[in-house]
Amino acid sequence: MTHPFDHHPLTPMPHFPGLSWQPLEADAGLSSYLTGMSDDERAVRSLCALDSAGQIVAYGLVALDAHPKQIRAYLEGAVREPYRRQGIGTFLLGWQEQVAREALKRIDDPRQKVMRLDRFDPAPDMLALYEKEGFQRAFAEDVLRYDLRQPLPAFSFPEGFILENWTAANSTDFHRVYEAAFKERMDGMPLWEFVPWRDAFTGSQDFRPNLTWLVRDGDQPVAYQLGWVEDGGGYIVQLGTHPAYRRQGLAGALVMKALHAFHAEGLPHAMLDVNQNNPTARRLYDQLGFTLYRTFVSYQKLP
Predict the structure, then answer these.
(1) 167 to each of 186, 209, 229, how far by Cα in Å?
(2) How far is CA 83 from the centre of its chain?
(3) What CA–CA distance (Å, rounded) separates 139 from 98?
């Protein structure tokens, strides 16, 4: 089988005084996040600039990954100071697009094909470059942090509801609430079907069934929270409430239950992500004591 990166176009290397160009020896850790393709299929194509001392001062790489509704070419890269604002980033982004476009053309698959840029705490000039080159913002999130070393306030769960931990038997009920809760919150992105959703959020070694809860009103699943332990802290990876059960205190109670459980596990902090276009959720987390840790943005472009 022909690899999609085979015969990628050779771009003439520009002349930047004092710099030489070669592939990266490693993939900067990106491939560990790519799970939709085999190791061979998601091989990374890379290019880096080295100064006269052999130090990497800029790099760009492209990696393919398969998602339920898309085939994505992730473009990762950076330029160190004092080499920024010299055209190196513009050149690398153009090289990445060229490689990604040719690779995506070679994949015979009916799913939508996109080029994607994901960045934490991006500099304004970086975002300006993306938009100048035709990339559009897909979504932006704030990453929030809670210090579990401080005293935790007491809380009580709303009466009349039943709490269950995650099991294989009730996993489809978690997904039912996910579909209802996120139907209008996906910014045009399609909802995940059950199997890829389950595998993405509970297939990781970070997932903890004992830190994950489903809320029922009788037999009806109405809210849920998925808990991980990642990088030495608790992580509320997803939280949702059925629209018919909002404003009853369920989301805040689930967050507090997770915080108390993380604390009981001896974890020093907890994290969660909130979309920047969801001010209602952000106000809740602010009121509970979360603080801004960093921001994340995702840009996309059709090949």
Answers:
(1) 26, 7, 18
(2) 28
(3) 24
Nearest to 227 by CA among 206, 241, 196, 242: 206
pTM summary value: 0.82
- The phi, psi pair for 260, rounded to 5°, reads -65, -40
Residues 6+ apart with CB under 8 A from 7: 102
DSSP 8-state secondary structure symbol assigned to residue 109: -
Digitized pLDDT (tens) for each residue of the chain, 303 residues in all: 345 555 444 456 677 888 999 888 654 444 444 444 444 444 578 888 999 999 999 999 999 888 878 899 999 999 998 898 899 999 999 999 999 999 999 889 999 999 999 999 998 988 999 999 999 999 999 999 999 999 999 999 999 999 999 999 999 999 999 999 998 765 556 788 999 899 999 999 999 999 999 999 999 999 999 999 999 999 999 999 999 999 999 999 999 999 999 999 999 999 999 999 999 999 999 999 999 999 999 999 999
Instruction: Give the H or E element holding residue 276.
Output: none
- Structure token pair of residue 288: 């509970």
Residue 225 and residue 181: Cα distance in Å, rounded? 12
Of the candidates 126, 40, 133, 64, the one whose C-alpha atom is nearest the C-alpha of residue 95 is 133
